User: What shape does this take?
Amino acid sequence: AKEMWIDLIGRAGFYPYYIEKVCQEEQLTLSLQDQIKTEFFKSDYLPNIYFHQQQKEIEIALSNGNNIAVSAPTSFGKSLLIEEIVARKQFCNILIIQPTLALIDETRKKLSKYKGDYNLIINTRQIVLEKNIFILTAERVLEFPNLPNIDFFVIDEFYKICNRLNDSRIDSLNVALLRVMKHNTQAMF
Assistant: This one.
């Protein structure tokens, strides 16, 4: 019964859970086909991380240089996709727009492991270096003096702004979006 359950998890595309269950079952061996599928869903840049099917589709689209809009629940793993982009070290200037200071701090903590590769910027008084990750609110993007061209940007937790009628931050977000997108920046919303 366990083997059948594990097989169903794999067929549904839930590879992070599939790998976890397979690793728990010492006597279970993967077929060559399952090994190939599993390897396909493995992150190329984050150790021991496997994407589920929808995450992998988004990761492929981003790898191909596409802009993408993702509407998904909090548990979907969009932050993991952001970390995958950062871990690639492909972009010089990454902008992550967050709606709240608490989310800025959470993102800063999560991405602090990349300080050796990127300068993390969370306010307008910090010095811009060659490779930067800007983690800002839309208002701070507009206040930032001499914001360099952004290579990749993310509007994270967008729904927290959009769900509030008459939220003046919508205007700031739209202006920030126009400012960044005029340079043909790749984006994930």
